[in-house]
Amino acid sequence: MSNYLHSIRRRRDKRLAQTYAQRDSGDQRIAVIGLGRFGSSLAVELMRRGWEVLGVDEDERIVQQHADALTHAAVADCTDNEVVRQLGVHEFPSAVVAIGTDIEASILVTSNLLEDGVPNIWAKAISRQHGKILERLGAHHVVLPEHEMGERVAHLVTGRMLDFIEFDDDYALAKTVAPDVATGVPLGVSAVRTKHGVTVVGIKRPGQDFTHATAETVVEPGDVIIITGRTQAVEAFTDLV
């Protein structure tokens, strides 16, 4: 699963780069189909960021719960292509298929959006097999939120990390309490990068805001630091005491 997540991220990042290069930044409209936990959280966050959001779900109760928070909300079955067209989803530059456990519905909706030429389709998958089907259909971006979050939380549970983000190509960013090997002397003297293969890019002292770290920065015991590097090096460094 880990290798599959990495391959998903690599393809997603490549497509995102192409999308951002072509996208008209003034058109911030998106349709979110499926207003479960993932879809509703996504839709509300996009609204907070100033996007125009059309939220769609088959469940009238769920739509009513989110109607006031979204630009538009509709009760509809988007497995019916005629319904998709009546909603005008094909006119949106982006759409998210956030349907959860109903894999058949997820596939049908994604297929309908592709048939109608929606240029930027994100589709949620609940398993590796589901993700592969969505990719083969032609979904532009496939996300596995539960698996990716599980991988992230596993790093937090098993180590001293306070936060962890892994990118493709075996590269990670982590927040952790500074180990003793990095404290008491300037970072240039402790040679964290040379000895441990990680770079300290930020530091937060208790009661203060984060600041950028330089070679002259002296890390004190109890400071929280942001480090970057190869995933294995980041994991090993955060396990130091």
Class per helix and strand makeup: alpha/beta
The SSE string, one letter per element, is: HEHEHEHEHEHEHEEHHEEEH
Uncertain regions: pLDDT < 50 for 5+ in a row? 20-24
Average predicted local confidence, pLDDT: 89
Specify the overall morphology. Answer: elongated
- Sketch the major β-sheet: 6 strands, parallel
The end-to-end distance, rounded to whole angstroms, is: 31 Å
Strand content: 15-25%
- What is the number of helical segments per DSSP (H or I, 4+ residues)? 10
DSSP helix fraction: 40-55%
The quaternary state of the protein chains shown equals single chain
Number of strands: 11
Strand order of the largest sheet: 3-2-1-4-5-6
Radius of gyration: 22 Å
Question: What do these coordinates show?
Answer:
With 241 residues, the chain is an alpha/beta fold. 42% of the residues lie in helices and 23% in strands. It is built from ten helices and eleven strands. It has helices at residues 2-22, 37-48, 60-66, 81-87, 103-115, 128-137, 145-158, 187-190, 192-196, 231-238, and strands spanning 29-33, 52-57, 72-75, 94-97, 121-124, 141-143, 161-167, 171-177, 198-204, 211-212, 224-230. The strands form two sheets. It has a six-stranded parallel β-sheet, with helices on both faces. α2 (37-48) links the parallel β1 (29-33) and β2 (52-57). The longest helix is centred in the N-terminal third of the chain and has 21 residues, at 2-22. The two termini are 31 Å apart. The model is unreliable at 20-24 (pLDDT under 50).
